[in-house]
């Protein structure tokens, strides 16, 4: 299949969260399957994701392919989607109507299947249609929680949205899936437009850009294409790793890039890796990518995950107590998208059962997710969890420091180690920086005794125990 064919099919992918889910699944399959298999069976699939992500419909070209995909890949895909999304996903296979499929391969086609996560788009490149930014107005700086994981990237993006065309051009943001790259670039566009409603801003996924190039090539409308891209004030281009092996696209992007920079328009890019880590992209582009500012977004640390959960719950008009957020954040670590999945489950569970959100409820709602994880409680895990909870360093668990703000959490961790693991007192002492077993015994008795008297301590221990047990 040629670049053009594939991409005119892929062009229907508008860019909702459902698409990212499917895209993540495709990316993973691309890594796991032999290339030939992937190109033959997976790449041509067109996905339609329902609004609540509970259902994914895959469209295939004919009955034979449908049977084959169902037999060979459906189970695997369903499992993958469920894992990525943190909730069961119903997978359906359907045959693309011949007529629709035929149209999909025509350059002039309005794509046959749209994801239902976004309203249909008009033909965006007809000369008469109004300028379209493709921005998702729901993704703003206001609801992008800041933490040390994204502080640099967020600050640089803020700066660009305030004074585009000056510093940090291009801004290159990279990081793993679900960490907020797409959210961040939309925020830049939305902020600039709020300040300067007349600004020409375009958000585009790299795959869509590829498909625009192909269309312009087929229809011989490169002048229009150039005019459209080269006249922008701000170009936000997402997931540039998709330019890999697309020579024609890379050339056109290079031209647009040079033109935009020359007129001091701003370019913000995202990618799953830093520029030099990109493969199958021309060296001259890579060096351009790296010529402004390159910043990473890291996976969110615990505190940030807690803040994100509380924020998102609030946005859904639900109250998530901090201890529940702590419990969830401690157990769902990989990325923000997974956190959102967990939150959605908890909210649904709470509404459905008309119960308040508590650790107990969260545990029930996330039962499947939690049971996947290894539930072995280690002393190390206890030390980390307790240190996080009381906001001290893990190293202080082994250190000789004695101020109460450190000594007390350390005693609590020793107490929990005795209670929740099979380790002996000397073993525990050893794991706490080579302390004597009498020190451990003292801590165990002290905390155990105080717990009976002090409700606040008892409550804290309860949260820690629940969190550790998962
Ligand atoms: P990426 O593009 O890096 O794969 P997304 O931007 O699609 O990730 O983010 C995944 C989801 O997580 C989105 O719903 C996004 O709004 C949300 N998200 C990511 N980071 C944050 C954050 N710091 N604060 C709030 N929501 C976030
Ligand atoms: Mg993204």
Structure description:
The protein is 55% helix and 9% strand. With 470 residues, the protein is α/β, with parallel strands linked by helices. The chain has four domains: 3-104, DnaA, N-terminal domain (GMP Synthetase, Chain A, domain 3), CATH 3.30.300.180; 151-296, Rossmann fold; 302-375, Orthogonal Bundle (Helicase, Ruva Protein, domain 3); 377-469, DnaA protein, C-terminal DNA-binding domain (Chromosomal Replication Initiator Protein Dnaa, Chain: A, Orthogonal Bundle), CATH 1.10.1750. Helix 12 (302-315) crosses helix 13 and helix 17 runs antiparallel to helix 18 (404-420). The radius of gyration is 26 Å and the shape is globular. The model is unreliable at 1-15 and 99-129 (pLDDT under 50). Bound molecules: adenosine-5'-diphosphate and magnesium ion (MG). Magnesium ion binds next to helix 7.
């Amino acid at each position: 299949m040629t670049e053009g064919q594939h991409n005119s099919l892929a062009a229907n992918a508008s860019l909702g969260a459902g698409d990212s889910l499917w895209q993540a699944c495709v990316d993973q399959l691309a890594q796991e399957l032999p290339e030939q298999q992937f190109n033959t069976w997976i790449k041509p699939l067109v996905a339609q994701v329902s609004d609540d992500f509970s259902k994914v419909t895959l469209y295939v070209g004919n009955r034979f392919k449908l049977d084959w995909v169902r037999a060979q890949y459906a189970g695997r895909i369903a499992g993958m989607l469920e894992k990525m999304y943190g909730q069961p996903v119903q997978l359906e296979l359907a045959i693309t109507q011949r007529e629709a499929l035929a149209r999909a391969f025509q350059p002039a086609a309005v794509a046959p299947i749209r994801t239902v996560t976004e309203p249909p788009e008009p033909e965006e490149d007809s000369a008469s249609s109004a300028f379209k930014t493709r921005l998702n107005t729901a993704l703003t700086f206001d609801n992008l929680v800041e933490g040390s994981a994204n502080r640099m990237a967020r600050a640089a993006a803020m700066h660009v949205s305030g004074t585009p065309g000056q510093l940090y051009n291009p801004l290159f943001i990279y990081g793993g899936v679900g960490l907020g790259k797409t959210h961040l670039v939309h925020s830049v566009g939305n902020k600039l437009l709020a300040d300067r409603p007349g600004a020409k801003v375009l958000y585009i996924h790299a795959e869509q850009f590829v498909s625009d190039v192909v269309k312009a090539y087929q229809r011989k409308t490169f002048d229009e294409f150039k005019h459209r891209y080269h006249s922008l004030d701000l170009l936000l281009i997402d997931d540039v790793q998709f330019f890999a092996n697309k020579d024609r696209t890379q050339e056109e992007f290079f031209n647009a890039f040079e033109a935009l920079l020359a007129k001091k328009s701003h370019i913000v890019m995202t990618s799953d890796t830093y520029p030099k880590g990109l493969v199958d992209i021309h060296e001259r582009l890579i060096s351009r990518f790296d010529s402004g500012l390159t910043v990473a977004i890291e996976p969110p640390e615990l505190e940030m995950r807690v803040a994100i959960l509380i924020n998102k719950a609030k946005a859904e008009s639900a109250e998530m107590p901090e201890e529940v957020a702590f419990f969830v954040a401690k157990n769902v670590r990989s990325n923000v998208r997974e956190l959102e999945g967990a939150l959605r489950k908890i909210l649904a569970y709470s509404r459905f059962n008309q119960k308040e959100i508590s650790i107990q409820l969260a545990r029930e709602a996330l039962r499947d997710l939690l049971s996947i994880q290894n539930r072995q409680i280690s002393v190390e895990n206890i030390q980390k969890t307790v240190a996080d909870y009381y906001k001290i360093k893990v190293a202080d668990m082994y250190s000789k420091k004695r101020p109460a703000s450190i000594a007390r959490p350390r005693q609590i961790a020793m107490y929990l180690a005795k209670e929740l693991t099979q380790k002996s007192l000397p073993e525990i002492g050893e794991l706490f920086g080579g302390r004597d077993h009498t020190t451990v015994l003292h801590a165990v008795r002290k905390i155990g005794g105080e717990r009976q008297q002090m409700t606040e301590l008892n409550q804290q221990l309860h949260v820690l125990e629940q969190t550790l047990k998962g």
